[in-house]
Records
---
Amino acid sequence: MKIGRKISGAKYHQSRKKKKYEIDGQTKIIHLGKEKRKTVRVRGGNVKTFMLSSDIANIIDTKTKKSKKVKIKNVLETPSNRFLARQNVIVKGAIIETEAGKARVTNRPSQEGSVQAVLVE
């Protein structure tokens, strides 16, 4: 819907309210900390698992093709927003410091319920 006024000066009026499936959910921010998840009932009676905080990542070593669970120490940088790294927010593309070394997050942890990353040389 357009915001403001028409050329004539009249107001734009909302034709109807949004339906429940049209309303955006609250943005979920994944902080570095003790692992915490939340399950929510969604459309069709299905269940989605959201991650709220995590200190463990599934790291994939591209050389050996092996994966392992590793503890996250710190969030070094986030290409999308530098302020997120200062707040230790884990997002896709963020470079995290782990016990195995630096790694880049390859998934969207807010939607999948886990943190997956690839080692960066």
---
Amino acid sequence: MFGLKPNADFSFLTGQTLIQICFGEHDLILHFDGGFSGAATAISITSLISLQLPESEQYEWEDFRQGAGFLVALVSNKVAKADGTTDGTLTIEFCEGGVLKIYDNSKRYESYSVGHGDKLIVV
């Protein structure tokens, strides 16, 4: 549980389209197309996530296989907004209404990493 710096900027995700999701029991990788910047982005997740789809309840998973059917609904959606909080939570809002939250809930290990071009954010 390392959190994020107060000035953590995830605006580079805005306008990017989620093009691929890779699933494992304890790993989830999201690949984005790069959007306006052209630099592709990948988010590797090994922590708790939650998903709120339009007109549905909020779901949470640490075993990503359980959420695969729900997460697939985000493929081909553009990011409307992405923000991080100092407790380490990354919130990604999609243009079609889905909201994905990635939590920093591990006391011993990294919870997620965001790679964008030559920039790497590890939480």
